[in-house]
Amino acid sequence: MLSDIQAFVNWVRRRNPSARTWRDYQYDLKQFVHVVGDLAPSSITLHDIDRFVTQQAEHGCKPSTINRRLAALMSFYTFLSDDDPALVCPVLPHRHMLKEPQRLPRPVQPEDLGKFFAVMQSTRDRAMFVLMLRCGLRIAEVAGLQLPDLYLDEPRPRLVAHGKSSKERTVYLSPQAERTLRAYLAERQRAVSNFVFLSYQLKGLSTTAIHKRLMRYRIQAKVTLTAHRLRHTFANDLVSADVPVTSIQKLLGHSWLETTQTYVSANDHQVQEDLTVAWRKLEDWQ
């Protein structure tokens, strides 16, 4: 099975060399082999999957982690089925997938944002994190951004983001994001690389390098935030401004409307107003 896993991982890596997806698949699938053994894929049964799920849960893995590893297995079997159409994936979603607790996204508070950006002197870093905050870009989308993706001289300045599964979407720049990005580009050194954000070696930055910059700044600022919470803040601000949820879905690059709907659930003006009216009627609650 290990040789098949390596073939699958190599295929994923060829499809998107800049993403770390192949590393995640490799780790998750090796976790499975560690539990059930290096068996032929055709010999794996649903009872082996039962055992794997039980073992992972007993070792304290979260439902989201277990489900991610099961999804990796399903992708692995889909890959193998190209060569062997008779091969059946032993993962049964209705039986093996675990119910995950729904966590509402938490935006970053304005005072924490102020502290975070106050310790930031680099125009490059400020531009990267403003794109996450004001345009909803993922950290991988910032890392993968290239000069030909920028359309700053159009009536409505925009860029093309390359999201999950290599999906492209148009991202419009807020005035703040445009100013910050132009300030960086004015200082950006000339380089052979087309990546917008360059390292000191004049090469593109990895997602790990960007994450390390974020960790450094948040320690200096004494705040707790993540790149994804900057993206949450972007979505939350749009909901507060009554932007239609379908437009927010497109701006975030969500495949499913249900994913975007969680931001509405976390910031439902009608629910807030109805509760306020109820409080006024229930004098004992005042």
User: Which whole number gives the mean pLDDT?
Assistant: 86
> What is the CATH T-level topology of the largest domain?
hpI Integrase, Chain A
Kindly give the count of domains.
2
**Spatial shape:** globular
How many strands, what sense, and barrel or not for the largest sheet? 3 strands, antiparallel
Q: Based on the structure, what is the oligomeric state of the protein chains?
A: single chain
The side-by-side strand order for the widest beta sheet comes to 1-2-3
Task: Bin the helical content.
Answer: 55-70%
Low-confidence stretches: none
Q: DSSP helix count? A: 14
Backbone CA Rg: 23 Å
Helix/sheet category: mainly alpha
Question: How would you describe what is shown here?
Answer:
It is a single chain. The protein has 286 residues and is mainly alpha-helical. It folds into 2 domains: 2-96, Tyrosine recombinase, N-terminal domain (DNA polymerase, domain 1, Orthogonal Bundle); 110-269, hpI Integrase, Chain A (Orthogonal Bundle), CATH 1.10.443.10. Helix content is 58%, strand content 4%. The chain contains 14 helices and 3 strands. It has a 3-stranded antiparallel beta sheet with strand order 1-2-3. Strand 2 (158-162) and strand 3 (168-172) form a beta hairpin. Helix 6 crosses helix 10, helix 7 (123-135) packs antiparallel against helix 9 (175-187) and helix 12 (245-252) crosses helix 13. It is globular, with a radius of gyration of 23 Å.
Give the helix/strand layout.
Elements: H1 2-15, H2 21-36, H3 46-58, H4 63-81, H5 93-96, H6 110-118, H7 123-135, H8 139-144, E1 150-151, E2 158-162, E3 168-172, H9 175-187, H10 207-221, H11 227-240, H12 245-252, H13 257-266, H14 269-281
Antiparallel strand pairs: 1-2, 2-3
Helix pairs in contact: 1-2, 2-4, 6-10, 7-9, 7-11, 11-13, 12-13
